[in-house]
């Protein structure tokens, strides 16, 4: 038996209501360019809208002008999607509260998650949306996941309950030491003063 190795998220498709509500939210609030539209090839009564969340991948929405929107919280039963989280820069994250307030969108947070800060609000159809802002930049040639797994190993090795910035800083240092060569025989911390 062998795995089917995935190489990233291709797209996520959500059930929307009318076309304009989707465009107004995904592009008009979250800034995702509206890049493609065609009929839903499995249900010609629906339209299929495609948005770029910023990494060239896709968020797609099935819309139908006869499908009313429902602003109640989407189901959180087992097997349901709890929320969608989108990466934002620190500059955008610092402006998010004011920009949500300007639209009258209720939110909660920001929340300190140790390795990121989070802000939550609902889309027009009740889907919980998270704006996530990493507290670190991975070293050159590494991904955020590389830093996270290294920080996890450091945290659990020390018996710490949850991730903190010290785990991230130590993980970044460890990754740099492993991945980047040095002419020095001793790369330990020193005080030149």
Automatic annotation (TrEMBL):
Pfam families: Glyoxalase. Residues 8-134 form the VOC domain. Gene3D superfamilies: 2,3-Dihydroxybiphenyl 1,2-Dioxygenase, domain 1. It comes from the Bacteria. This is VOC family protein. The lineage of its organism: Bacteria, Pseudomonadati, Pseudomonadota, Alphaproteobacteria, Rhodobacterales.
């Amino acid at each position: 038996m062998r795995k089917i190795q995935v190489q990233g998220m291709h797209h996520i498709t959500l059930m929307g209501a009318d076309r304009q509500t989707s465009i107004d939210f995904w592009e008009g609030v979250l800034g995702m360019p509206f890049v493609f539209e065609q009929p839903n090839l499995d249900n010609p009564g629906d339209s299929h809208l495609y948005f770029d969340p910023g990494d060239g991948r896709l968020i797609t929405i099935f819309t139908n002008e006869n499908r009313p929107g429902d602003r109640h919280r989407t189901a959180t039963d087992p097997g349901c999607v709890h929320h969608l989280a989108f990466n934002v820069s620190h500059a955008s994250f610092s402006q998010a509260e004011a920009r949500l307030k300007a639209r009258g969108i209720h939110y909660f947070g920001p929340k300190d998650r140790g390795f990121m800060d989070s802000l939550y609000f609902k889309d027009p159809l009740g889907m919980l949306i998270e704006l996530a802002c990493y507290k670190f930049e991975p070293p050159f040639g590494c991904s955020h996941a590389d830093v996270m797994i290294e920080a996890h190993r450091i945290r659990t090795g020390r018996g710490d309950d949850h991730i903190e910035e010290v785990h991230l800083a130590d993980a970044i240092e460890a990754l740099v030491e492993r991945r980047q060569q040095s002419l020095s025989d001793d790369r330990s911390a020193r005080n030149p003063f």
